Automatic annotation (TrEMBL):
Protein name, entry field: Leucine-rich repeat-containing protein 51
Transmembrane segments: none
SUPFAM superfamilies tied to this protein: Outer arm dynein light chain 1
Gene (UniProt): LRTOMT_1
Keyword Membrane found: no
A single GO cellular-component term on record: cytoplasm
Protein's cellular compartments: Cytoplasm
Amino acid sequence: MSGAPVDLSFRHISSLEDAWSEDPGGALRPLKRNPEKKSASRGLRLNNNDIADLRDLQTAVGHFLSEPSQLAWLDLSFNRLPHIDHVLCELRALRVLYLHGNNIFILSEVDRLGELPHLQTLTLHGNMIATHRNYRNRVVSTLPQLKTMDFSAVTPQDRVTATMWRRSSDRRRGSEEAPRRAAPEPPESTGPQAHV
């Protein structure tokens, strides 16, 4: 990362549009800024706010960072996010993503993060999805490049277990869908008795 992260944590920000008026100063290390007042940082802290959607995330990143496409570290923990938004998948250089302590409740939305080829560290604990029985297996099998999940190393055994779980889950899903595919379509009726 180049310089300290842009720190907009603990600001009572409820929408990312509100963030634009904030001065990210006050960090332990002063931000180095270019003449446009943008930071060369590759990190952004938006944790411990009241953010419930990410619709303006790209604009906010571009507002504060001189190279928004190079954002590698994003902390959105302890907000009110109900979903893993597709906009996160546009942050192609992202390596670290903190989403713990939000309101994310649909486990399958983790699949979206598979579009982030460099993602190595992810936190999701403290969300409803973390209570799902196969939570860790689903995340590790979906994101095989992860090295750390919920501040815990992803071990070789985690990978083996997740792979076995995925295969079993795929087989189970395939056997449930097979009878539906094999069931013949009802014949189309023609003639007057079809309307009886």
